[in-house]
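User: Can you recover a sequence for this backbone? Please restate the input before giving your answer.

Assistant: Of course. Working from this structure:
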């Protein structure tokens, strides 16, 4: 199995989640922070974790630009075709951190669905969507008076433990798939 964590992060919260996923999987995983030069062949990997902070209900611009570039490339190479055939054995997890100051987790849903739709276009099966609360840095009001209450210091150890447990769960699922030749 080849694993990859790809993520964007402006103030470090999403990076913390990415690091916990990496630490749970161990040495067997590549971890890349997306920038304007990032260029990845997704089909080289069996399981890709893609994560972003939620910025105005969306992933970061850096992540969305990267995805747009990737889609153009796959369109040219013939990998992106109508009906998006499902590639067996190609899996993804979408994760985000969000503060939800106005409407809570609803604000994070479009960002996750945006990332999910990308994977479905290129034939990956999305196994799960992980939403983690993350402090809105340098914004006291949004970190203390929003729908989610006081979210300072998050993601905290409990949040990261949840990520660790979910990561272990996904690895078990994939191991079982292999055992059953699925
Ligand atoms: C400019 C900006 C816009 C944001 N917009 C939203 C938003 O629409 N909804 C939300 O839930 N959180 C929003 N947030 C909060 C971040 O998603 C949250 O704090 C996240 O954990 C930051 O992750 P990072 O440290 O990896 O950048 C915003 C933060 C910033 C700085």
């Amino acid at each position: 199995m080849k694993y990859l964590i790809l993520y964007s992060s402006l103030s470090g919260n999403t990076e913390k989640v990415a690091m916990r996923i990496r630490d749970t999987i161990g040495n067997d995983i590549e971890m890349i922070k997306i920038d304007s030069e990032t260029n990845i062949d997704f089909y080289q990997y069996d399981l890709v974790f893609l994560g972003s902070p939620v910025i105005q209900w969306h992933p970061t611009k850096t992540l969305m630009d990267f995805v747009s570039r990737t889609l153009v490339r796959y369109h040219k190479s013939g990998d992106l075709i109508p009906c998006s055939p499902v590639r067996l054995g190609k899996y993804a997890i979408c994760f985000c951190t969000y503060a939800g100051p106005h409407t809570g987790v609803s604000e994070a849903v479009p960002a996750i669905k945006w990332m999910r739709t990308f994977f479905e276009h290129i034939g990956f099966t999305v196994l799960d969507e992980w939403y983690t609360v993350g402090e809105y840095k340098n914004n006291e009001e949004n970190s203390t008076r929003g729908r989610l209450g006081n979210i300072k210091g998050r993601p905290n150890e409990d949040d990261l433990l949840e990520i660790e447990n979910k990561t272990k769960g996904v690895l078990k699922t994939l191991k079982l798939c292999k055992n059953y030749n699925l």
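That completes the design. Helices lie at 13-25, 61-77, 109-121, 140-144, 157-179.
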